[in-house]
Amino acid sequence: MIKLLRKLHWAWCLFCLFLFFVLFWPFYYWFTRHPRYYGILNKFRTIHSFTAAALSGIFIKFDFTEKLDPKQTYIFCANHTSNLDIIIFCILAKGRYHFMGKEELMKNPLLGIFFKTIDIAVSRESKISSFRAFKKAADNLESGMSLIIFPEGKIDDAYPPILHDFKSGPFRLAIEKNIPIVPVSVTNAWKVMWDDGMKYGTRPGIINVKVHQPILTSILAPENDEVLRNEVFNIIKSKL
After folding, report:
1. What angle do CA 179, 182, 188 make, to 5 degrees?
2. DSSP 31-60
3. DSSP summary character for residue 224
4. Helix 169-177 × helix 225-237 angle, to 10°
5. Which ranges of 32-147 does DSSP label H, i.e. alpha helix?
6. Cis before 160? omega within 30
């Protein structure tokens, strides 16, 4: 019975997401046409995410170690266990921000329009694709766009999920561009929706998110990227 209810709730979640995607489609189409509209585009992504989640009985509780500066450009790094992580960061991040995610998302019926425009798609198997992706992310950071990245690189098959080693790319980028890194621990999203929800379904609930103190990178040398990576890993893991 519980399994059936979770499947029904998963179907309802998808319906809510698709419903508002269709309603917002004209705005998404227009505001993805040029980078000068990206701030407005993200406001619609925030409304879309919050409303669809709320109608599904899913709410996000943020715990901030310190208040973030809405005018500051950040690199947000978080563990990744659920497709809800995208919704979480559409609510958390402010202003002009973008995601970096796997290349397959370009074919996603909901996210494809974003990963072909504002967001960055990268192939995990291609060094050339990775180089181009981080070059584009660097350019976006210089223009004042915060970056949201999940440095594990994917949602793993383990259930319950465990935190896997981080890729080095975002930490080298943070040092090179002197951008503060914000570690974020998404503690229980997997209990509400693991991965895309297809296997175990979903359920209503409150997702607890710990937003840690930003780590300044201005005093770090490029060769310190591994130290920074390990520090962020341990901070995120401390709240999981």
Report:
1. 155
2. HTS-GGGHHHHHHHHHHHHHHHHHHTTEEE
3. G
4. 120
5. 38-55, 84-92, 112-115, 127-142
6. yes
Q: In what order do the strands lie in the sheet containing 205-211? A: 58-64, 205-211, 181-186, 75-78, 146-149, 97-102, 120-122
Residue 181 phi/psi, 5-degree rounding, is -100, 135
Residue type, 161: P
**Residue 213 corresponds to which tokens in the numbers above?**
């103190």
Element (H, E) at 173: helix 169-177
What pTM, to 2 d.p., does this model score? 0.95
Q: Across the 240 residues of the chain, what is the mean pLDDT of every consecutive 10-residue run?
A: 94 97 97 96 98 98 96 97 97 96 91 96 86 94 97 90 94 96 98 96 98 94 92 97
* Element containing residue 207 per DSSP (H, E): strand 205-211
Residue pointed to by tokens 């425009």:
117
If 0-12 CB within 10 Å is exposed, 13-18 middle and 19+ buried, where does residue 153 land?
Answer: middle
Q: Which residues pair with residue 82 across a beta bridge? A: 195
Q: Looking at residue 219, what is its pLDDT? A: 87
Going by DSSP bridges, is the β-strand pair 181-186/205-211 parallel, antiparallel, or unpaired? antiparallel
Identify whether the C-beta of residue 188 lies closer than 8 Å to the C-beta of residue 116.
no
- Using CA atoms, how far apart are residues 122 and 169, in angstroms rounded to an integer? 12
